[in-house]
Design goal:
The protein is an alpha+beta fold. The chain has 1 helix and 8 strands, in the order H-E-E-E-E-E-E-E-E. The strands form 2 sheets. It has a 4-stranded antiparallel sheet, with no helix packed on it. A 4-stranded antiparallel sheet has the order 5-4-7-8, with no helix packed on it. 28% of the residues are buried.
Length: 137
């Protein structure tokens, strides 16, 4: 009988450890998933650069078949609409081509024909903006 009691205590202790470990796993915080390129620029475009922005990622893509660069700002996760913007221009130009508004998932695509030229591009989510000047290709 003593042996059975020790075995029962070991089983109970093991179950308690397992329950505690499982509870800890369920309560552990998860990290936010980074945004992935969503293909919004269309077929033939490949991601050539990206920048993290608070709440998402700005993607610069290029289509060698038509010589166009394209920018999309993608939120990490959809939710209620916030201001999201994507912009692109040929370096030295004062005219931005952009798409901005209150969106739930992404802004863009915006495109510029610029084979062999330098471009500037940016993205905004809520009140955070990032910009890259003179990406040349």
């Amino acid at each position: 009988m003593i042996r059975g009691t020790k075995t029962a205590k070991r089983i109970a202790a093991g179950a308690a450890v397992l329950a505690t470990a499982s509870a800890g796993l369920l309560a552990a915080p998860t990290t936010a998933q980074a945004a992935s390129y969503n293909g919004a620029c269309g077929s033939g475009y490949s991601v050539i650069d990206s920048m993290a922005v608070n709440g998402g990622t700005v993607f610069l893509t290029y289509n060698s078949g038509n010589g166009q660069n394209c920018v999309v700002t993608v939120r990490n996760s959809s939710g209620s609409a916030v201001f999201v913007d994507a912009g692109i221009k040929i370096s030295g130009s004062s005219t931005w081509i952009h798409d901005g508004g209150n969106y739930t998932t992404y802004a863009g695509p915006v495109r510029v024909y610029a084979p062999g030229q330098c471009i500037d591009w940016y993205g905004t989510i809520a009140s955070t903006a990032v910009q890259y000047n003179s990406h040349c290709g």
